[in-house]
C-alpha cells in the first residue's frame, strides 16, 4: 500500500531526559524531528517502527549560539532555513549557509532540520524501493550489476554497497571540521566528522555512527575556519529538490597571495564525505593560478573506479575542485 503509513505510538517529550527514558523503554523506537526522510520510509512501509519519539520541541536541541573560540553551536533540530538565514552562520561559515540553501526546496528547508539532514539514509533507488540488497540485509548490490542504473552512485570506497552520502550540509560540516554531540543515557560524547560518517566497510546498515538509543544533540563548529575564505557548489539535475550528482565544500586561509591552510571535501562520490587530502597537500603554500589548477585537476579524482553510467562524475569532480581553488585567486 503506497502512501499509507503503518500504525505507531507517538511520544512528544518536552525534555532530553524524557526522550532518553522513552528510548530506554522501547527497543525499536525511531527518533523523528522534521520527518523529511522518515515519513518517506513510513509511507512506503519499508520501515515500520512501533514507537516514534518526536524531539522537535525539546529546547536543548534547538538554536544557534556563539562558542568561546569564535565557533558556533547549532542544535540538531534547528531548521535548514534557520541555518541559512542566520547572520552568525553567514558571516563565519558561509559554506554551510550555502549548503543549507541548496537542500531540496524552501518548503522542505522550513521543516527539515540540520540533524536530520546529516543523519538521513542513502537515496539509492534500489535500496529505497525495498530491494533485498546488502544494505537491507540481502546478498546483492542491485546498483552494481551489468544492467544497473547507477548514474548517481559511488566512485570510491565501494564495499559491497555503492550508495553515496545524500547530505549537502554534511559536506560543508566535514570541511569545517565540525564535531557532533551525541547523547546516550545521559552521557555525552563529541564525535569528529571524520568518525561520525561511516562507510559500508564498517557497518553496511548505517551511514553514521548513531545507534539505537543515541540522540544527536547538536553540532559544534570550531572557530578555526571562522571568517576564512570558503566555497560551496552543488551540481544536480535541477536546482530545486534534487540530490547532488557531486558537490564540494572548501575552507581556506591565505597568507598574502599564498594558501596557508585548506580543507576541501567532495560529496556524492562515496558513501561518506570524501576529503581531498591530495588536493590539500598540493595547495598548501602555493599561489592560486593556472599551474596549481592543472595539478589539482590531475589528483582530485585519482583512484576513482566509475560504474557503468557514472563516468561523468570524474571530470565533474575534477572541475569542482579546480573551481574551488580558483575562487581563492
Automatic annotation (TrEMBL):
Q: Which Gene3D superfamilies match?
A: 3.30.465.10, CO dehydrogenase flavoprotein, C-terminal domain (3.30.390.50), Uridine Diphospho-n-acetylenolpyruvylglucosamine Reductase, domain 2 (3.30.43.10)
Keyword terms: FAD, Flavoprotein
Q: Which residues form the FAD-binding PCMH-type domain?
A: 3-226
Q: List all membrane-crossing ranges.
A: none
Under PANTHER family, the record lists:
XANTHINE DEHYDROGENASE FAD-BINDING SUBUNIT XDHB-RELATED, XANTHINE DEHYDROGENASE SUBUNIT C-RELATED
**What is this protein's name?**
FAD binding domain-containing protein
Q: What species is given as this protein's source? A: Chelativorans salis
